[in-house]
User: Fold these one by one.
Assistant:
Number 1:
Amino acid sequence: MIKTKAYAAQSASSPLAPHEIRRREPGPEDVQIEILYCGVCHSDLHTARNEWKNTLYPSVPGHEIVGRVVAVGKEVKGFRIGDFAGVGCMVDSCGHCASCHEGEEQYCANGFTGTYNGPVFGGENTYGGYSQSVVVKESFVLRVRHEEKNLARVAPLLCAGITTYSPLRHWGAGPGKRVGIVGLGGLGHMGVKLAHAMGAHVVLFTTSPGKVEDGKRLGADAVCISKDERQMASYANSLDFILNTVAAPHDLDAFLSLLKRDGTMTLVGAPAEPHPSPTVFNLIFKRRQLAGSLIGGIRETQEMLDFCAEHGIGSDIEMIPMDYINTAYERMLKSDVKYRFVIDMATLK
Ligand code: NAP
Ligand code: ZN
């Protein structure tokens, strides 16, 4: 076993603090990665504080990992020592159900294994990227083709990038489509960049008047302050697709009414408490759909990384030292991050 320094929460109410974990020695199919950068996802906060009521402690969050390969098993074909590599939200799945066969491991019928917090249907804990290194089987390791100087901006693509890319592709964001992105946080700002790069007309919905200019800079064609009823009304029945990234319960009807006939709003935000149920009439009169989407499969994550490398897309980040993480969580709760905290893992001593 490899002794590895990490940062962990020991309970729902304790702040994250230094902690030592053990990683397995790399097996024949494993890749060992020295972690250089790890993005801070709102799911890390939900998990560290047991807001989804399923946290295994000690909890070492972090599933936006970029690093350097330092060891490979003898059957590993795609990675060599010294390569840059990424790890996202999953480190394993059953490999034989229909979803796994279709490259949609996140919907594995037997439950994928999270990079942290273990298998989704229960099992032994796993420890995430707030740590010095990680050992992952090759089939769950991503190739990173970005230049070294951009690696920190790549880390958030591993969750925020794929979680927005996958539904935008699935529901056909592209030229001629009017797409709404709700919430300009880590996921939302990637949603704006990606939908813009796919060629859609993008409308950003934000509760924060101070983010209007940023929204446009990031690629939104228009920005609507979602608390302003008059502005909201001007978008009624006008959007083909809405991607809702908000991490708190809110009124879904306000956004459903902006969809055209047959339009879809997909929820990726995962608040601890339920949203108030939308009114049926808002759905049935225009055959609107309310949907959900979970991260993305490994094949699609690689496709997204390659798309971002080709289009020069990275996350807008604020780099932080490891011991700033508890402050970062408080700031994330106040929507005070532009637009993703990324931990410089060299600061974990
Ligand atoms: P984040 O950076 O905190 O961004 C969330 C944004 O939502 C905020 O910046 C804010 O945007 C808006 N918001 C927050 N509180 C609000 C409120 N009370 N009312 C209205 N808007 C509010 O979080 P994130 O990392 O992007 O994650 C967002 C959510 O997605 C989390 O629940 C996370 O767990 C979930 N998630 C889901 C998946 C998946 O696979 N489905 C994957 C990753 C994360 P404005 O200031 O612009 O309003
Ligand atoms: Zn995440």
Note: The chain has two domains: 2-159+296-347, 161-292.
Number 2:
Amino acid sequence: MSKKIVTVQDISCYGQCSITVALPVLSAFGVETAILPSAILSTHTGGFTGFTVHDLTEEMPGIVNHWIREGIKFDAIYTGYIGDTRQFDIINDARKTLLNDRGLLIVDPAMADWGKLYSALDETIVEGMKKIVRTADVILPNLTEAAFLTGRDYIERPNKEQVREIIADLSAMGPDTVILTGVSYEENKIGAAAYCRSTDTYHEYFTERVPKNYHGTGDVFSSVAVADIVNGKSIDESLKDACEFTVKCIKNTLGDPNHDYGVKFESVIAEKK
Ligand code: PXL
């Protein structure tokens, strides 16, 4: 039977990130996805100025309570960008009420990149992310988010030993599976490294590095990895699928000079058929 999840993140109306990436990608991978939107913004906050933000915290408990009354349950809760700290308690409650017996809390602590916190966020969000990371089954931070979560200095290109240490610190916070993205030991390769405590296994996957940064690539990577994980694929398969899908999207965007705000994933989805 196909899996059903709920994703908790913002709706950035324009800009190809968060929910507007998660929904099409998860659907393409066969996962039914409900949304619990955390905020609605005119665009994402990376590279745009003057964006509008409407927080949806007040709306969220009513949505969850209706689902409880309807007896709706999910195989996973997948969280991303959170703009208000009160939402961490809502997620924590939803974890108890909305998940199936073996349901997973999967946290992409989407709050920072390239050494910096996203412009609309502050330390209170970092503290809240630390709290949900402790109760999560799977987390998918990039190197910057890992630095904020662990209190370690941000290193753009950590070596193998440093990557193992970062992952060990994240694992010690509580999650069973840590997937660290943006790992690169060679100039022309980039990928992800992961540790799963319950199986005591370490995993890595690398693909070609395209020398250009785009917003929204973390959301693409996480959405593919979440789909694979809930579909019961192994960590190795999940890393491979997520890395390969993401690099294809990046390559597909390279030719368009007016598309730095996100990656063009549509034709990559279409190719999957
Ligand atoms: O892609 C992560 C993300 C999600 N949501 C909002 C963002 C960003 C990154 O900048 O600004 C609102």
Note: The longest helix spans residues 235-253.
